[in-house]
Amino acid sequence: MKTFLFIVNVFITFIITSCSVESDIMTVSDPLQPYIAFGQIHNSMLEKTEEAIEDILKTRGKDFNPMDWVELHELQKAQIQYMNISDEHKIMFTTALDDHFNYYNMDYIWESFTSNNSNGVSEAVEMINQLYAIGIIDIFERNLLYKLNKYIIRQKSVTNFSILSSVQALADQWRNYYGVGGNIDINKKGIFSAYILGICLSSAEWWEDNPESAAPVTRVAPWVYADACGALRSGLYAIIQQQVQNNLSGEVDWERVVYAALAGGVITSTTGLKQVAAIIVSFLF
User: Fold this and answer.
1) 19: confidence class by pLDDT, cuts 50, 70, 90
2) What's the gap between Cα 212 and its chain centre?
3) Which of the pair, 30 or 28, is modelled with greater confidence?
4) Within 13 A of 3's CA, how many CA atoms are on the CB side?
5) Distance in angstroms (rounded) separating the CA atoms of residues 122 and 161
6) Torsion of CA 275, 160, 163, 284, to 10 degrees
């Protein structure tokens, strides 16, 4: 219990300036910047999770078993309480983390997301197509998400593939198509990909800036593809679930979608930290 309280106190000491996105009035030349700000929340949580794991390992060693993930999950939820977001959004984010607890099992998430069904279509492509059929995304956004999904798969299998430069190229395409004149007052088309690109850009930049934090390239070291996969899958699911509940109305609660995407990205990225991967390997082999 003392260890847990110590780690929670560590969380209190940090200030996440990027987490005040809901209260900021942004007049910026980059129309993606408000969405990238949400991605910075992902990076802040990843950094503090890494610090928490280090502190636990120093005090308890292998007594911390991430195979059940419960303590780590509670530490990540505790971090939310000290973010500069509204109480409503804290509840939303915490609930999203609980809803995505199974994302710690990255092997399962990856397999279900990329495996083709009987029609030869992966879960990812099928959900993207559903959003297009409902009218939530347009054809440009559909094709952009297709490309992102391909980059995620390629980054996992090709070790020297730079997903950061590829996502940056997608972001430029998004800006050219949706961000005419630098306006952020766009319609609902383009919003989903903006949030996902914001999380992916921030994540890829963090891993490039902190290569020492990543596990070796093994099956339990997802690196950047895990973050992007978790964010995209959970965001897609959140929208589809809303449509099922609302009789395919086409209306989207974007706040719930982005916190779902953040939760998926945060949890899957945790499995790529070298401390977590090392402990998993010690238990499996």
Assistant:
1) very low
2) 20
3) 30
4) 16
5) 22
6) -30
